[in-house]
Amino acid sequence: MPQSGLAHRLRSPILLVVLATAFWGGNAVVGRALIPGVSPLAVSFWRWAIALAVLAPIAWRGVRAAWPAVRRNWPWLAAQGIVGIGINNTVVNYALAHTTAINSTVVYAASPMMIMALARLVLGDRLRGVQVAGLLLSFLGVLTLISRGDPAMLPALDFNRGDLLVLLGGLCWAVYSLLLRRRTPELSPTGLLFVLIATGAAALLPFYAWEVFAAGVTFEPTGPRLAALAYVGILPSVVSFYFWNRGVQALGPATAGLFVNVTPVFASLFSIVWLDEVPQLFHAFALALLFAGLYVATRPAPPLQAPRGDIEVRRAG
Questions:
Q1: For a surface tag, which of 78, 107, 115, 297 has the fewest beta carbons within 10 Å of its beta carbon?
Q2: Is this model's pTM higher than 0.85 or not?
Q3: By C-alpha distance, which of 83, 89, 74, 81 is closest to 42?
Q4: In whole angstroms, what separates CA 178 from the centre of its chain?
Q5: Distances (CA, A) of 262 to 112, 167, 266
Q6: Rounded distance, CA 64 to CA 30, Å?
Q7: Taking a C-beta distance cutoff of 8 angstroms, is the pair 239, 22 a contact?
Q8: pLDDT at 309
Q9: Residue 6: its pLDDT value, please?
Q10: Is residue 80 included in any domain, yes or no?
């Protein structure tokens, strides 16, 4: 049954979160190209408006059937949508207008540590030594990537208010990942994503309306811009968030959060392909460190063994 085997592999939570970060890596490249001609708020609003239009025919019937559960869990769903959909992406978009892509990568790479810390403090999750070791390895891979293999570059990085905004975005992402632990079983994964995106887009609507009608900030809808908005509205939004939500619920926020550090790797690879950047040795070294860290962190815990004395008593009885 080859098809069933393929379907099983495609449902792997690790593969899902890796694919999510791949599309987010593309979003980093496309989004940076969009923002000079389109305001950060407009990019965020139209990203989620497009995602909502794509999801509506698929998810609306299920959401309508589960509406009593949606109303019952509305405060938690609203918090997830506003923090993870509305605020996170908008904050990072504004940050890119004030900081460099390298700086934003360094700061956002702190979000897995935030997820681990919050999971320990808020949820009481116990962190295994391999998770911490894997986090350190993967973070070292990110530093190798942004320093281009030269550690002397790191002290020269100049952090500014844009970097503080990226840090806020990383904190929002950590909170969103933790909130995903509270499930609404009546909602399918697609229905959950629809509700969260609708909430996030609704939170952005009054701010975007003010920007257009009061501040007069608009953009020319050229073909390349519309194509870029279509990309960010479908793959990094609908597909990535669906994959991420499923992955977090299967792996837990602390383990899944480690994969956030894969995003800058994919962004670099896409820059090589789309922007004709030449691959360097440090790319391969950073990739090896990153995936070594992920391999270490996601290894299953060894099975618990009964104390030797218990075994001897059982045998004696």
A1: 78
A2: no
A3: 89
A4: 12
A5: 11, 17, 7
A6: 34
A7: no
A8: 47
A9: 41
A10: yes
Q: Which domain holds residue 205?
A: 14-298
Q: Are 149 and 282 in contact (CB under 8 A)?
A: yes
Encode burial over 136-148: b for 16+ CB neighbours within 10 A, e otherwise. Answer: ebbbbbbbbbbbe
Over the chain (317 residues), the average pLDDT of each successive run of 10 is 46 86 82 81 95 94 94 93 91 75 60 76 73 75 71 68 78 87 85 95 96 93 92 92 88 78 74 63 72 69 51 40
Domain membership of residue 109 (yes or no) is yes
Looking at residue 22, its pLDDT comes to 87
Rounded to an integer, what distance in angstroms lies between the CA atom of residue 163 and that of residue 94?
10
Closest C-alpha among 225, 226, 195 to residue 55? 195
Number of independent structural domains in the chain? 1
**Which residue's entry shows tokens 């063994």?**
305
Structure tokens at 310: 């218990």
- CA-based nearest residue to 294, from 107, 140, 179: 140
Structure tokens of 100? 């460099």
Residue with tokens 């794509």: 54
Identify whether 148 is part of a domain. Answer: yes
d(CA 282, CA 309): 52
Q: Would you state the pLDDT for residue 270?
A: 75
With 0-12 / 13-18 / 19 or more C-beta atoms within 10 angstroms meaning exposed / middle / buried, residue 282 is middle
55, 193 in Cβ contact below 8 A? Answer: yes
The closest alpha carbon to 48, from 85, 95, 14, 93, belongs to 85
